[in-house]
Amino acid sequence: SKFQEYDFLQFLDLEKAPSPRRFQPVPRILRKIFQAREAAAAGGVSQDFCYVKELGVRGNLLRLLPDQGFFLNTQNPSRDGSCLQKYLYFNLSAIKEKGTLTMARLTLDLGPRSYYNLGPEVEVALSVAEGPGVWGRSLPKPGRRLALQSVPGPQGPLHFNLQDVVKDWNGNRLKNLGLYLEILAKGDRHSGVNFQVENTCDRLLRSLRASLLVVTLNPDHCPSSSRKRR
Amino acid sequence: AAIPVPKGSCRNPCHRHQLFINFRDLGWHKWIIAPKGFMANYCHGDCPFSMTTYLNSSNYAFMQALMHAVDPKVPKAVCIPTKLSPISMLYQDNDETVILRHYEDMVVDECGCG
Question: Is the ipTM of this complex over 0.90?
Answer without folding.
Answer: no
